[in-house]
Amino acid sequence: MPLYLSPFFVISFLRYDVIGSIIGSGDLRLMTLQRVATAAVLIPFVVGLVLFGSTAWVAVALTVVIVLALREYFALGDAIGHRAYRIWTTVCAILLVYTQWVATLQASYQIPGGFALHRQIGRFANGLGATQDVFSLFLLGVTLLTLWTKRPLVEALPAAGVSSSALLLVAFPLSFAVRLHGWSREGPRLLLFALVITWAGDTVAYFVGRAMGKHPFAPHLSPKKTWEGAAASLVGSLLVGYAFSRWLSAPVPHLLAMAGVGNLAGQAGDLLESAYKRSAGVKDSGALLPGHGGILDRIDALILAIPAVWYYWTLVYSPGN
């Protein structure tokens, strides 16, 4: 049975915020309909893009997600009076995705019309070829903006801080989704692995935490999270790792370890975003997705889970590739 038709995959894809809301009633009915409707639109698109789309199209879609996430992140900074260099940071975030896509290219990349984009051309004649180049360019831009801006000097440090953290804590880790997808023939399934271990972990954590959670996990960041839910989340991701042994070539011990590392990173990412919101004094990062909140609210765990899976796959399981 194809991966995208398996009952395991369908159940895992229905995240806790959709399934959990279905069991609600009364005043929650409208939110339930909004959540289900939003999920019904996004789920087929994400599945189809990851499994059947090219890495270039994944990069384009990811760029849109990152730009929207940065917009919400900048708004969190605005809430505490820290204005970022929005345009410059966004430009550099797009360049990060671009360099990650270039890194997946072979000697040449076929494009429609019978043309080929060669690696060196894709790197601006061997100029901008790696993520460190983007960070260097970003540093230069922030320097110029700080020295020649008309903003009050009191804003110099907060602007640089919010801009740098947006690039480092949101755009950069998410850009590894492109690297995962572009990793040989198994790339799409690797990216799907990172997504599903996160969604499954969130789903199990929600139900177990709601049913038997008694010991707060991080009450100062997220009062509703419990140790019972966190442990259940890890177990749920491990089950996903085992199930993916049918679709990935790695041995089961490596898949379990990769799922565990990805889950722990994802839970840390979730708490990290909670810290951002509490610092800004807001409940949700935005309201773009009806019934769900903002983009950051939906991808917080993936921000760290995706690079965790990437580094495990490349440094631990496949160190020579």
Descriptive notes:
The chain has a two-stranded antiparallel ribbon with strand order 1-2. The chain has a two-stranded antiparallel sheet with strand order 3-4. It folds into two domains: 1-52 and 183-321, no CATH class; 57-177, no CATH class. The two termini are 29 Å apart. The chain is globular, with a radius of gyration of 20 Å. Helix 1 (7-13) packs across helix 10 (187-212) and helix 10 (187-212) packs antiparallel against helix 11. Helix content is 69%, strand content 5%. 40% of the residues are buried. The protein is mainly alpha-helical.
For this structure, the quaternary state is: single chain
Q: How far apart are the termini?
A: 29 Å
Determine the structural class based on helices, strands and strand pairing. mainly alpha
- Strand percent estimate: under 5%
Provide the number of structural domains: 2
Supply database-style keywords:
mainly alpha, 69% helix, 2 domains, 4 strands, 321 residues, two-stranded antiparallel sheet, globular
Short description:
The chain folds into two domains: 1-52 and 183-321, no CATH class; 57-177, no CATH class.
Task: Itemize the secondary structure elements and their pairings.
Blueprint: H1 7-13, H2 16-22, H3 29-52, H4 55-79, H5 86-103, E1 108-111, E2 115-118, H6 119-122, H7 131-148, H8 156-174, H9 176-181, H10 187-212, E3 216-218, E4 222-226, H11 227-243, H12 252-280, H13 295-317
Antiparallel strand pairs: 1-2, 3-4
Helix pairs in contact: 1-10, 2-3, 2-10, 3-10, 4-5, 4-8, 4-12, 5-7, 5-8, 8-13, 10-11, 10-12, 10-13, 11-12, 12-13
